[in-house]
Design brief:
57 residues
Length: 57
């Protein structure tokens, strides 16, 4: 019985990690971010805002 519970718990964690969709992360969706020096990077939106970047849509 214990091994069955361990098996299902491990499946739960394995599929939980794949719940993130493509193009997003734990810090928000990935966006093109333009910095003050003119460079553009494809980074999470939260990091862009904290770096005082401008989101390009």
């Amino acid at each position: 019985m214990k091994s069955i519970i361990v098996f299902f718990v491990s499946l739960f964690f394995a599929f939980g990690a794949s719940a993130y969709s493509v193009g997003s992360s734990a810090t928000g969706p990935l966006v093109n971010c333009e910095f003050q020096d003119g460079s553009v990077k494809y980074i999470p939106i939260l990091i862009c805002k904290h770096s005082e970047g401008k989101v390009i849509r």
